[in-house]
Each structure stands twice: as structure tokens, then as C-alpha cells.
From TrEMBL, chain A:
Originating species: Mytilus galloprovincialis
Lineage of producing organism: Eukaryota, Metazoa, Spiralia, Lophotrochozoa, Mollusca
Entry keyword set: Membrane, Transmembrane, Transmembrane helix
GO cellular component, one term: plasma membrane
Disordered: annotated span: 33-56
Transmembrane segments annotated in the record for this chain: 180-202, 241-262, 331-356, 376-399, 411-430, 467-489, 501-523, 529-548, 568-589, 627-648
Protein name stated in the entry: TMC domain-containing protein
PANTHER family named among the record's database cross-references: TRANSMEMBRANE CHANNEL-LIKE PROTEIN, TRANSMEMBRANE CHANNEL-RELATED
UniProtKB/TrEMBL annotation, chain B:
GO MF entries: calcium ion binding; magnesium ion binding
Keywords tagged on the record: Calcium, Magnesium, Metal-binding, Repeat
GO BP terms in the entry: calcium ion homeostasis
Organism for this UniProt entry: Mytilus galloprovincialis
InterPro entries per UniProt: CIBP, EF-hand-dom_pair, EF_Hand_1_Ca_BS, EF_hand_dom
Domain EF-hand: 33-68, 70-105, 111-146
Protein name from the UniProt record: EF-hand domain-containing protein
Amino acid sequence: MSTKSQNNGSDEMGEETPLLLAKDPLLRVRTYSHSSGTTSHHSEAATFDFRAPPPSHVTPEDVLQRMRYAFRNDGFDAENDFEAAQSMLNTLERSAFRDTVLDNLKETPMSMRERLGLRRLIYSKTHTRRRREQEIEESTTKSVNRNYTFVPFNLWEETIANLSAYFGSNVASYFKFLRILLLLNIAAGILMISFITVPQAIDGPQSFNSSISQFGWLSKSMLLFGSYSSDKINNSYNQPLAYILTWMGVSLFYLIVIAVAMHVRYRQSKLSDNADDYEFALRTFSAWDHTIYSKEGVKDRRKALCMELKERIREERKARKPRLETRLLRYLGRIISNTIVLGLLGGSGYLVYYVADEFELPDSTPTELKKLFDKYQLSAVVSLLKLFIPLLFEFLVHLEGWPPRSALKITLFRTTLFYFASLVVFDMSLHNVASECSSASCSDKGINTTEVVCCWENRVGEEVLKVVFIDLGLCIAVGLFFHVAKALFIKCRICCIQLELSEFGITSSVLDLIYGQGLIWLGLYFSPLIIVIGIIKLFVVFYTQLFVAKMAMVAPKKVFRASRSGNFYLFILLLTWFLCILPTAYTIAEVSPSADCGPFKKMCKAYDVISHSIGTWPDWLEEPVQYIGTAAVIIPVIILLLLVALYYRAKSSSYADLIKELRNQLKFERKVEKRKVYASALSTPFGTASKATGQKYEFDVEQTNFPIIKTKT
Amino acid sequence: MLSPGNVPEDMRDGKTNSFRILLPEVQKMTEIKENPFKERICKVFSEDGSGDMSFDDFLDMFSVFSEAAPRDIKTTYAFKIYDFDCDNFIGRDDLERTLTCLTKNELSDDEKQFIVDKVLEETDLDDDGMLSYIEFEHVISRSPDFLNTFHIRI
């Protein structure tokens, strides 16, 4: 009778509540070894305990299992057990087992000495020494390769490491992102230069007349579109074709790299979207950043962590729902501030558009000023807006009284939106610049209408370049004259107002980088060498930021970062790519290039160069391709894609709901049922149950991360 | 760097294991001098648990803290570091000591207790008042930046 009830007890544990109980063999074993209170090998083998069965009974699965949990240091003798387990196998299984052990050895939490011992043992047993030699060879070649291929990736490694000694790995990640962008641009720049600039340089830049040039001799240099030749160089190199193909190739290269990086990162980040459930646990266990080792860094980090913990405790203790009036007031405030944000977005967009298109200074202003203004109005407005609007957003969010994490997300969202809006408007105003020139219809080509000599591609390139320069200038200026000056004030105690050193704003800095990259993409077609300028800019930005951070910044106070932000930045980078490359692609396909300069001056559309040189579509494809290009097809396709996206979005959100529900259910089960189950489990010690029924338990290592107990009759 | 005069030049014949640097010496290393868990780290990696480290232990330590170490190993050693009393479970006492290391004396006992309660509420799946390795791993795998921060550069 008693046997039966015990049996029931163990069944219940094994089958009905596998998640709660069976997944943790360590816990269970500990419970029972305590209750039995035995330590010697033999008495433990009598009761069931997988930790230390006599060596002759060790199965290979046992060895693997115990290697996984070797850190428990409980009498696991790897070498003996391995030999014992091996003696039970036939030759074929033996070598397979050896391989498995070797493969797992690297990920086994044993000390170096134990691992070496086991490895030596395994190798001394293998009489075929070939594998060993092979492996040694492999590993040496691998390490050599590694040393060589990773040299550029280690650029600034030392500097970044020193920086993270104080600022921690979050700030270091910003500099690493910068490094990735730099390397990417260098690779793309090499492509651009070797396929476009070098062939042209052999021939010398094409000369052309341009009535509008703002950069003086630079406008006629190979920096810009205009000086690239429309003929074959040396009668063999088809420059127009090379130009367009290289541009396409480089753009695709960027896209592929970003997509691959996103994929890799996504796979690395385990499902960490429910980090909210573990706020305190994660703050306790993974809050410490071991990369920080400078004294001030440790002090600041500790202070920030304490502040945050205290804040969280306060929030947690406070009654959840504030009073109705305050809530109403808060909602009202949020509505107002959101309206302001929308107004700011629209207003700044209109401002850029207006300045680019219509704005003129009154006649009374001196001509010098007017000239200067004409030259820089568009780029200046774009950069100034970029400087001030994000600050305004941050200020607004303070007023709204969001909890810190949502505040971060909202600012991020709004700033991103603003950057996109300004890029789009900038696109449009560039288009206006372009259309001033390209009004001459395509049929006029060939007849040289010399009255209006212009090269709108060059103008667009110049505008973008100007924004890039001003952007860089502002970055340096803000760093030096704002942050450093502020730090000087504070250090010299000149100012009597209480000031604080600025925090290092990772989010805004990363968005800045992305914006800069967007500008490079935007100008890539119109100015192939913009990449070189972009590379120089990244170098300068790196050292400026480094200098400013070291001189005048403190580590960010928010220890906890919005989860998975790394992937989020990549996603924004991807969107920026679309925003910047697609308008250019449209230009290539639809707008007629200027007739006086550039590689495509003989063409009706830049795209024609492909159909002329490579050939048109075959006849049977021609019609379908043209048909696909019409709005009648494209619009439904876009709508369909949107619907599919929406469908998957809805599906994923429903899964999220399901997960939430299940988790709640689990919590409930835990609260109500578990104690009962535990009580019964404790009353029927496992060892006795197994002994009485003669069942053998074994752990299933292969199937899951959590060994589940199976009963075997 | 760490009393180079004392280290024998010839490391053969098991010297890598037998010669040790004492705990106070090890703790003076720049990379871990300011680390709040320095003592725990040394003890976890020293073979007899005293904190004195041999060359092998040293290798162990920095291989675990290196960038290339797999997540499982990092998790395992993080668990050991937080397990102050070495009973293979993180209990209330361990949690308190972890918090003391992290925050020195800036939190009151009351606040610490509150956090310990919360941590257990969030993570203790089987309600035994302490965290087993599996429970710990479950939590730490949710951390967005554990891999980046559990990393010491030399």
C-alpha cells in the first residue's frame, strides 16, 4: 500500500509538474542527499543519487551530465569517471563518446588543470595520433588567421578599453559602433575609388562649364559628379557603366552588411524582451560592469546604481494609482506636449522647405552677407534644427512625467522621427534644386543650349557636402564650447550657479552617427568621394568625442539600458538606408541627368546606360517588366505587403498576449498548487521510491536544457 | 606586475600549479583592484578556495572573463561568485552580501531586505527561498548585456 502511494508520488513529480520540479535535478538531489545525510560513495549509491554512483556504474550520459555541472565540486573525478564510462562501450561508441567529450570540453566549467588532464587522457588513449596532429595544425592555422584578419577590427581597442574603465561598456559600445561604421565606409570607399576615381584619374578629370559653383576649384575636381567622363576611357573602360554599377554595388554592400549584422545580433540575444519581469534580479546580478576598473568609475557606477535602486524601491512602494485629477492633468499635459512635438516636426520640415525654395533676404542687406547666406542657408538651417529640436524634445519629456524607461523610449522615438523627417524634407528640397535645371526636356539633348549651363547633380552634391561639413563643425563646436567650457567653469568655480557636468548621451550620439551615415548615402551618387570625407569625419568625431568625454563628461546615470537597443540602432540604420538610397534610385531611373556634365550627359535617363551597354530585356520579358513597373501593379503590391506585415505584427502581439497569460497562469499554479506538491514530494523521498519499485531513473540530456526525469520499467 | 621577483622563472614540472601568489597580492592587480567582487572572484578561481592563485588559476580566471568565453561558462562562474557560502545555492544571505558588495553602505538594511524579497519573488520558481543554478541561469539569460559586462580586459 505504502509502495503504491509512493509510486504515485513520484509519478506525479515526473509527469504532471515537469516544469516546476523535474527541471532542476540539482535541487532535488540536494534535498534528498540532505535528508539521507550520507556522504560516502557506497551508502549514496544505495539511495538514488546521480552525483556519485560507484565508478563501475557511470554511464556516458552521466559523465556528460556531470561535466556540465562540474562546478559543484562534489567528488566528480573526471578522469576516473571517464575511464569507467568508456569501459562499458564498444570500440565504435568509444570514439564517438570521446569526440563528444572533446567537443564539450571547451564549454565545461572545470578548471584548466582538470580539462588538460582529461584531454591528455583522451589523447593518450587514442592510438591514432592523426586526429591530434590534424587538430593541432588546424588550431595553429586558425589562430594565425585570426590574428591577421582581426587587426582592423581591433583599431582603437586600447583606447576604447581605457575609456570603458571609467564609462563602462555602454559608452564603449558607442565607440565600437563608430568603429564599425568607419570600417564599413573604408571598405565601400576602396570599392568606389578603385572602380570610379582611379580610372578617371588616369584620364584626368573631365572639364566642363558650370555657372553655379560654390566650392571653387573643388567643384571641378573629382570630388563631384560633374567631372566624370561620359566616354570610354582609353577606349576600353566604360566609365558611365562603371559609375552606375559601382554605386549600385556599394549600396547593396551596405544593405547586406546591415542585414547580416541584424540577423547575427538577433540570434545572439535570447528572448530578452521580458526583462521587465526581472527588474530587481537583473539589477542585482548583472548590474555590475566588470570592465570598469578606474576608481572614479567604480564610485560613480555605484552611486548611480544606488540611486536607481532607491528610485525603484520608492516607485514599488508607492500606491500604484494616482488620484483622478492628477491623472487627468497628466493626460492633458501629454496631449498638449504631443501636439507641440507634431508642430515642431511639421514646422521644422516646412522651414527647411521654405528656406530651400522661396526664402530671400530683403534687398537692404549688404551683398556680402546675402551671398554668404545664399550659399549656406539650406545646410545651416538643417544643421541648426538638428541641434536644437532634440534638446527641446528632451525638455518636453521631462515635463510629461513618464517613468524613466518610457521617457527614454519616447525621446528616442521622437528624435528618430525628427531625423527622418528632416532627411525626407532635405531630399525634397534637393529635388527642387534638381528640377530647376533639368527642365530641359530629353529631346533637346544633342542640341547644345548654352544659355543655361548647369550641372544640377553637382549642386546637389555640394549641398550634401555642406551639410556634412557643418554637421562636423557643430559636433566639434558643441563639444568644445559647450561641454568643455562648462567643465572648465565648474572646475574653476567661476560660475556661482550650481552646474553639473554633462552626461554622455549614448542615444543621441548614436543617432548622430546614423544621421551622418545617411548623409553619406544621400550624397554617394552625386559625389563619389564623399565617402572619403565621411571617413575623415568619423576619425575626427571619434577623437573629439573621446577628448570631450574624457575632459568634460560623466558616465550616464541610467545604469539600465533599454533592452536590445543594439538591434534597434541597426534597424534605424536600415530605415535610413532606405530613406537615402531610394530617392537616389528614383533619380537614376526617372530624372533626366544634366546635359552639360557628368558621365550621363548623353543619356536621356541615367538608367539607360545599363540598357544600352548590357542590352535590353529579351522581348518576351519586356512587356511583363514594363507592366510590373506601372502603378496599377505597384500600389496593390505595396498594399498587400503592408497587409502581410500587419498580419504578422498582429500574430506576434497575440503570441505575446498568450505568453503573458501563460505566465500568469504559471504564477498562479505556483502559488496555489506547488506547496501541496512539494509537501507530498518531501514525504516520499525519491531514493526510497526508486528502490522500492525497482525503477531506474535516467536523465535525458539531449532533448532539453533541463534534464527531465524519465521512468524506465 | 605582481611581485615578479617571487615568481620562478622555470614553470615546468607542475610549477604552474604549485607556485601561488597570495590573495592580498592578487587583489592589487589594476584590473580588479576596484572591483567590488574582487575577493569572491579570487576565491572562486583559486583551486582550494583560499584566494591564493597559481598560474593555472590565473589562466582560468581570464579565460572565463575573456570576450570569447561562452555564455554558459560565464553564467556558471557568475553564479559561483554570488554564492558566497559555497553551498551551490544563492540564498537570502548570499543576496544580501551581493548587495552589500554592490552598494557598500549606501542602502539601509530595510531597503536591502526589500530588494532581496523582490529578487526572490521574481526568480525563485520553486519557492524554497533560494536560487538554484537553473533558476539563476533562467534570469541571467534574460539580461540584455550580461555578456558585455561580465568581461575583464587585460
